[in-house]
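Can you give me the bound-state structure? Components:
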Amino acid sequence: MTPKPLSTEFVQEFTRVQRPLYLYILAQIGSVTDAEEILQEANVDIVAKCDQFEPGTNFLAWARQIATFEILQWRQGKARDRLRFSDEFVSAIAHEAAEHSETSESERNALEHCLKKLRPSDRKLIQSRYQPGSSGKDLAEQLGRPANSVYQSLGRIRRMLLECIQRQLALRSDPT
Amino acid sequence: MSLSTPAGMSRRHFLSHMATGSAMTLGATQFLSHLQANAAEVKRNQKACILVWLGGGAPTIDMWDLKPGSKNGGEFKPISTAGDLQISEHLPNIAKEMDSLSVVRAMSTREADHNRGSYFMHTAYVPNPTVVHPTFGSVVSYELGAKRKELEIPSFVSIGGGGMSPGFLGMSHAPFVVDARGNIQNANMDSVDPARLGNRLEMLATIENGFIGSNRGDIGQAHKDVYGKAVNLMTSQQMAAFKVDQEDAAVKQSYGGHQFGNMMLMARRLVETGVPFVEVRFPGGWDLHNDVFNTLKNQRLPMLDTGIAGLVRDLKARGMLDDTAIICMGEFGRTPRINANVGRDHWAASWSVMVGGAGLNGGVAVGETNQDGDRIVSESYLPGDLWATVSHALRIPLDTVHTSKRGRPMKLANGGQPIKDLIG
Amino acid sequence: MTTDQRNHLLSLLDAVFEETATADQIAQLEQLVIGNPEARSLYVRASSLHGMLYWDAAGAPGEQFAEESETAAPAVQKSVGTNQSVGRRRLTAGLAIAGSILALLLLALFMQPPPALQPNNSAAVVDNNSESVVEPVIDPVEIPGLSMPGIRTHVPQETPVVADVLPAPDIQLPQALLVDVIDKQLAQEWKANEIAANPRATDAEWVRRVYLDLAGRIPTVAEAEAFLSDKNTEKDTLLVKRLLSGNEAAANLANIWTNLLVGRMTRTPINRPALETYLTNQFAANRPWSETVTDLITAEGNGDDNGAANFLLAHLNNEAVPATAITARVLLGQQVQCSQCHRHPVVSEWDQDHFWTFNACFQQTRIVETTMIDQETGERTRIRELADEPGTKGSFYETLEGVVKVAYPGYDGQEISLEPETNRRAALAELLLGDEESDVARAFVNRIWAQFFGYGFTSSVDDMGPHSPVSHPKLLDELSKRFVSSDYNVQELVEAICLSEAYRLSSKVPETTDDAPEHGSLPLFSRVYVKPMSPEQMFQSLVVSSGASPSQIHSSMEMKSLREEWLGQFFRPDETEENSESCTFDGSLRQALSLMNGDLVQSVTSAESGTLLDDLASSNESDVTKIRKICMATLSRYPSDRELASLRQVLRSYVRQRTERNVPARLAVNEGLRDLYWAYLNSSEFGLVQ
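Here's the bound-state model for the whole set.
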């Protein structure tokens, strides 16, 4: 492979789709770290296949195709994992996940807004949870609270965020 | 004077009293038109439902779905019945009638709190803060009672009950609550002079007309409906249906001769008069967190057994069983596991309901739980399915939709489907 | 998808996100999602949220995107210039995650690195031909308005903390009168919802309302007429203050709270009147509500000597489950009883442990029964006393899976010492009341609000959990805070509510309105909602309307027992071990029959000496005056002209009929007036607080 400079447009697009792509993969995999791994593989592929991309077409859709292939491969490797999602499930949600990845921009903005609306204590909790390398379990140990109760609090906060995002999006899509 | 006893004032006597007041204007005309309509005979063989409510949540694992050999099995043994299923040894009389009754052994209803469970089982909907769903007796009252012009007493009677609401169907479909002896407080005309009552109602109607014009929502209309029903009730000979004391001792004895038996007998009398829905609240709680087996064996089950068996036999003998659905349940079942106080706690995940009559298949066990009774291993059912089954039996169209006050459409029985093994 | 399914799905997802999901849970999740579009969408959105939280936190250490200033976000969306920074941030985020390192490396190799990468990311050293990677050191990226001192300590501290410059919440008005707080915030909501508040109620409507809500009865004719003819512009305030300082208001509050605490039909042998007397004294002396709550929770001794003890004496049965559930529901506004057996169906934090740790606070407490024999009469009386046994006992409970667990005392995540000598109930009271944000205060404010307005800020005042939307969150917060800082001053709160603009409005239902909590929406309080009278209000109003002196109601023992008896026909204890009861005083047939033919109405319409009807019978006033008086005595207003004319006509025609049958005219008129009085008592309007 002869290294050749990538176009600025490609780099911009490439960086732009990282998040939606990641979310697309995550929906079909369930594990944040596994999804990262797959994204990494896909990224290698995307860069390698950069000249196959037709400028002016939907970059994200193109990148998704590549990611879908990586997901398939990864799933085959884990075919015997009991905690893996079933084929039926993945095919049921793949379409939805793809569609959803197209709107991740506005969703992300809504999330920012919604995080601000949380009670400070809730916000702190959810941030600590998603601190790099952290997990709900670690957090519980840190706080000296039972893991289950921390899980529940996190679940509650996620629910609030989910509802808030939904409201925000509805508000923004409202033409008035 | 009591209109309901032969020795009391006759209808003609009452009419002559009324006639003394010459001005039969608005409020009082209600009497007359009503009394004339009264002449219609009560039709025979009308559809009806009797709900036997086991408040507190009965341990159905000790009644309808025994688990001999399991650690959860408890003290009781199953016995064979006239139907194709076994039930508790402490329900020997019901066992003889089981060819007419069935048990749904696969209820999975999630709500294990008394209030929420009771609401769910009565309405087929889980509680929702934005709307009050009608209890199913009110639905039947609305669907069938309203069409029975000859019926002068309320079309939904709750014997010993209370607490459930007609929701958006309105107070005129609220359960009429009477005590176990059928005493109806404040309903007899003994101390009322009909002419005076006519005058009072006349004045009341005048005041109410003003109020309805004052924009306070639908309170005025509800008030009018309820007072109309009250007047009907007070002047009706059908009140005799409540007088269970008038039955022969032998008949009472055939229902067990106890309080619950009398309540069941009253239910039969009411259904015979044309009441389409009667709820009988079992006298005595089933919230058996402690000492479940002794309480069942010595108190609850013998009463339930003779009361239900007596009703089934009597309905059969009178040719009414094919038109009368019987359903026996509480807000949930109880834990298969026996707790440290030899009791069973709340359990909604896998339990049983007894149902029969009105053309539903008898002698069948529908659905199945596992060996320990803590999981359903067949298709499971929701209260909506149960009420859809009853609706089917009562010929209430399943595609019936009611509309809440807010304009929200509500499917009959929450869109449940009749349980196939029980129909056809 | 039903709410239950939705909640079930979300809780399964929590397990997936926290990586605790079992194969069985995953199977359940799949089953819910496959084939249900709504569930699919929910799943994808939840997964996306989880991913975004992970991505952004992992991507930008030290960055607290939550704290961005309000102004930064729109700027980012609009200007092209800042777009760059967003892109840069995303890139950094994307690159920083471990999984994207390789991509970074490839990028660094194959392309001109984007300018953003250079200043902040020290170049990673890489060998193109090998897979081995030297981990790049990634410094936190500074993006205007985004970089914040984070959880990680290595972030430069000099970065401005945006949160500190956020405008302060706009309700910091400690000096404002409580009533102004209410008026301002409700008006804001009316404006925001583009809804016009109702016009004010007439004086006649308002005086009846305020008497019923505060004193628990309608005003007497004299009281109503005095108010109506009063020209003082401050007459509203004067009346509210006068009623609030009187015994009836205290007795009324005590009555309401006794019903809430132990019900009307207590199955357990307690001294209910002693509890009511204790509460009356507390309210009459305007003792802080926190003190009353502490008394109720920590009471010791027998119910005759200590009225407050009757609360727990009523509810320690069934492993103190009722004590736990009723304390939570009535005093804290939380419906937790269903979590005794399983996790709360909606609020996932309310699990069995939540219930049983609360329950464990009552596990040192026992009821000790002794029998006293009177030396002279030989009469035996049983005495039940609350006593605490120091001990370390927790609460045992079984999970749905049948695992026996033990819970130790605590509340809402805070633990209570297990030392045997710790008085757990006292410790619980401290936990509940120690904070400036107290659930006790919120629950009380909400309940009192609902008592006057017919609806609280939540659709049920018993159920204020995180799942219950609050109609006016700021107002509830502010009122609760002010309630705490006023040392739980009950009268101050009640007075502000009664003098608020919203409480002064008419209860007419407009032709069209979006403010319709009757149909399930959250209330806006743009009109007063019509409430049915409680059975106590009905009883007391029936008595007062007949001309009896209101002071009798609470002082005469005979009247009290008459009231208990009358109430008894409408209440029945439920067949459960949770000490609840059902009520048939609900506008149904039973209630109608009782008002038509019941003993009480017969007796108040009997024209006994000293009653209004007796006065009318012997007076020489005109029929019209008499009709007007009856209307005022029952509805606290005069009849409209039309009403008066129609009623007069009915009365006359009745009298004519009777005289034709040789009944003396005077007698006939008096019969007619009694019938009229009966009709007013049976009217819709009489039974309402409007």
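A couple of observations. The first helix of chain A runs from residue 8 to 29. Chain A has two domains: 8-101, 105-173.
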